[in-house]
Amino acid sequence: MKAPSPWRPDKLPLLPAFGALTWAWLALTPSLLPRPGLFQGLLCAVAGLIGYALGALFDWAISSIGVKLTDRQRRIARQSLAGLAVVGTVLMLIFNVLWQRKLRSSIGHEALTWSYVPLLLLTAVVLFALLMILIRLVRAFGRRTSRLINRIMPPRMAAVVALVLVTLVTYGTFNRVVFDNVVEGLDASFMAINQEFSTDLPAPTSPNLSAGPDSSMKWKELGRQGRLFIHSAPSADDITAFAGKPGLQPVRAYVGVGTDGEIDLRQEAQLAVTELEQIGGFDRAVLNVATGTGRGWVNENQAQALEYMWG
Predict the structure, then answer these.
(1) Burial code of 223-248, b = ≥16 C-beta within 10 A, e = fewer?
(2) Which of 51, 89, 220, 276 could be 281's S-S partner, Cβ–Cβ 3.0 to 4.6 Å?
(3) What is the dihedral of CA 236, 237, 243, 249, to 10 degrees?
(4) How many Å apart are CA 93 and CA 29, to the nearest integer?
(5) Is the entire prediction scored with pTM above 0.85?
């Protein structure tokens, strides 16, 4: 029996759709850190795909024991699910926006923009659709491969061989072609953005900060995110006012990746060690090592927590 198409409302697979909807809602629940619309949409799409798979598995399980709905029951269930999807999604989006606003306000993060919800929805819907199409293409490829191998092998053996071949081809294609190219493209894009958008922040004057008097790094070499991270370092006066006792200027070192896109991790690590030696990082009681995101962002709130705690 042919599986119902997820693209036609009258053929909507109920349990997989309910699973996708539920898991997408769960992805909208509060998080510890603020999420941009693009990332939140990605999480909803991936969570929805997992929920769809679990729903399909449960649907297969109950169908295998003979549990089936009548046409009338199925029609009512689809209509109810459609109404639940609209109302539930609107409510979860409202709660998500409220949670994000409260979280961003509590940590001093920039406020949400009007594009947050449209970007979230567009990303979630498009990515989920693409993932579903991709899975169906892989499944069709597997069935075609199994039929071809079945001509020279017994059916069960042909199914096993086809599964192995499809797995290897899929893994090789996405790991070697798609994934590598996507990562390289994102790295290049983030690097270009990091260099293109400058900041008007002045270079630090403290010897305990990268690009300061005792540092071998130049202010421009840090990139936009590096300059923002160094600029957000609290001063000795800030530490003193918070702790109620004399505090020290925290040591902050930031090592960028340059502008040519060529990254040697050993050289980067050695450069970071040299920078810490020059600005006094190894003279402190606590050393915190943090890695940046693809665009160079480092969570300054996490760094400040340790700086204020240890003074």
Answers:
(1) bbbbbbbbbebbeeebbeeeeeeebb
(2) 276
(3) -10
(4) 9
(5) no
Residue 116's beta-bridge partner residues?
A: none
Q: Summarize pLDDT for 110-150 with one digit per residue, the tens.
A: 888 889 999 999 999 999 999 899 888 888 888 888 888 88
Classify residue 119: in a domain, yes or no.
yes
How many angstroms separate the CA atoms of 102 and 109, rounded?
A: 10
The gap between the terminal CA atoms of the chain, to the nearest Å, is: 68
Angle between helices 300-310 and 223-231 (to 10 degrees): 30
The tokens describing 51, both together, are 């929920």
Q: How far is CA 163 from CA 144, 150, 171, in A?
A: 11, 12, 12
In a domain, 209, yes or no: no
- Give the domain extent around 170: 150-196
Asked if the structure places residue 291 within a domain, the reply is: yes
**Residues 56, 50: Cα–Cα separation, whole Å:** 10
Q: How far apart are CA 250 and CA 300, in angstroms?
A: 12
